[in-house]
Amino acid sequence: MQALILSNTGFGHGSLYPFIHYKEDLQSRFGLTSREIVSDSLQQKLIDARAFSGELIVISVPWDTDRHKLLDFYRELRRSCPDQKLVHFDYGDGNQSPHFGILPYVDLYLKQYLNTDWDDYSRRFLGGSKFIQYLVAIGQASDSILSEVWTELFQSELPAEHEHKLMLGWNFGLWKRMIYLAEGKPDLVLLGKDKPHRFAAAKAKAALDGVRGRGKTIDAYCRATLYAGWTRKHRETTIAELNHLADDYAVVSSTGKVSFSEYYREMAQARIFVSPSGWCEYTPKDYEAMYFGALLLKPSLEHIKTEPDVCFPGETYVPLKWDMSDMLDQCRYYLDNEDERRRIADKAREVYVGYYRERRLVDHLGNILKRLALVD
Q1: Is the pLDDT of residue 208 over 90?
Q2: Entry pTM
Q3: Where is the Spore protein YkvP/CgeB glycosyl transferase-like domain (predicted)?
Q4: Number of compact structural domains in the chain
Q5: DSSP 8-state symbol, 338
Q6: Would you give the distance in Å from CA 309 to the centre of its chain?
């Protein structure tokens, strides 16, 4: 069985990396081989697809692709490839999508995240997100495009007769650097992300920490970039509130930037990591916190399904109220109850690392191939 991966530059290419990383597993278990062509042009993707004679074509496109252009593309692609399985991989943030109109022309539509409550796909949310709508309701964001609340841009109608084609894909936890980290290769990540002198400086600090026998020296930790939009006030408020613990605990809570290597060193020193939402509820830092043994606290995720599925309330992370009003109390509780903090943090690392050690995404890919009737 042959697959053609027609990815796009940036996140699309990164999101489809598992076909490369797990290529030997996919070939041995399912007889699947693949090759990737990276292009942002729909016209080039059409040309490449027409030249392909294999069974499966997986496609990603730039997140801001016009929905009408994408519909034209898939309509013509289906005419050109009537017998091949067409899979659209939507790596966009959020559980909704502007591109559900293509569903009649594809065999599967994979999303990074899905709503736990399927009825949410028949509802309209401000900004295309239940979480954004909540922030607007409590006054932490404005219902305005000036706050990046684009209500029509990020959602479309899910046709009932094709909703069975909507299936969970996977998120940035399967990017190359995230896989390398989970496999115990953080230095490989840092050498690819940082300049050599920054990597060396952070490693020297970490070595000195080890010589001094210092354990986790940061009680509560949060570094977050301030985006221009609805998430800005949510993040600003979280960072400011967390600093209220500084009289009693060692706190690093800031929008200040450090090198990637220093960020990893700090994360390894942290007992608790507080993760405010970004453009979607998850961030890569959630998984990095689990790997480095920091207890993850973040707004409740129970309305979302995703892959890797490793966030279980009270077991691998501590869910917070969406307004973050219980954040300080939860921080104090777990900082004052180290056994409880360690229990959840240790379980999180075990579950997170185990996901990759057991190569569970390969099982998930097998389920996708079964849905496509390409394997038994």
Answers
A1: no
A2: 0.94
A3: 233-355
A4: 2
A5: H
A6: 11
